[in-house]
């Protein structure tokens, strides 16, 4: 898998190639070459490519893998300070804790809009069916993390045991 350092290295070489294309396009205008406008297009494309590679070098592409976490789906996320994920109804309390930690790491972004307290709140929910034809959303827990630091050691994880008790028991 490509790392951020590799993308920065590619961006450096693409930048050098962009400058070379720019010099070649300038030379084409001075010498009245017939392909001078094509060289301008190539230079512009290389500039966009260089900018994209540089941006990929700034943002890590890796996702955290927390042992014991289960797969979750993103239900609500506006890029702000609140997010909701959906977990399966068969989840245990330890799996929920690990899943909240993984979601807190994976959903962090420097581009999120913060509020006064600069906290990202991720709530985990599931849908249970207490009786036939009835669906009930049930919030199982939440985690709050900093919107400022990527490696936040001060995760505030809150699990709702009264809601976990309402989950259906697995058939043994």
Span between termini: 41 Å
Q: What number of domains?
A: 2
The ordered H/E elements are: HHEEHEEEH
- β-strand number: 5
Class by helix and strand content? alpha+beta
Rg (C-alpha, Å):
24 Å
- Arithmetic mean pLDDT: 88
Strand content: 15-25%
Q: Which runs of at least 5 residues are low in confidence (pLDDT < 50)?
A: none
Main pleated-sheet profile: 5 strands, mixed
Share of residues in helices: 25-40%
Instruction: Give the neighbour order of strands across the main sheet.
Output: 1-2-3-4-5
Question: How would you portray this structure in words?
Answer:
InterPro entries: Uncharacterised_Ycf51 (IPR019664). This is Ycf51 family protein. Keywords: Membrane, Transmembrane, Transmembrane helix. It holds the Pfam family DUF2518. It is a single chain. This protein is an alpha+beta fold. It has 2 domains: 55 residues; 92 residues, no CATH class. Helix content is 40%, strand content 20%. It contains 4 helices and 5 strands, in the order H-H-E-E-H-E-E-E-H. The protein has a 5-stranded mixed β-sheet. The longest helix is centred in the N-terminal third of the chain and has 27 residues. 18% of the residues are buried.
């Amino acid at each position: 898998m490509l790392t951020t350092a590799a993308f920065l290295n590619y961006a450096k070489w693409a930048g050098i190639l962009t400058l070379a294309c720019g010099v070649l396009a300038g030379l084409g205008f001075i010498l009245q070459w017939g392909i001078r406008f094509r060289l301008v297009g190539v230079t512009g494309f290389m500039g966009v490519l260089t900018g994209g590679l540089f941006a990929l070098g700034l943002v890590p592409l890796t996702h955290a893998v927390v042992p014991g976490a289960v797969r979750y789906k993103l239900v609500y996320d506006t890029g702000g300070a609140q997010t909701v994920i959906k977990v399966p109804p068969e989840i245990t309390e330890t799996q929920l804790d690990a899943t909240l930690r993984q979601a807190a790491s994976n959903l962090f972004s420097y581009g999120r809009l913060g509020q006064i307290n600069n906290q990202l709140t991720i709530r985990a929910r599931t849908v249970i069916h207490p009786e036939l034809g009835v669906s009930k959303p049930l919030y199982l827990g939440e985690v709050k993390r900093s919107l400022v630091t990527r490696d936040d050691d001060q995760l505030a994880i809150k699990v709702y045991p009264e809601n976990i008790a309402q989950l259906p028991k697995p058939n043994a």
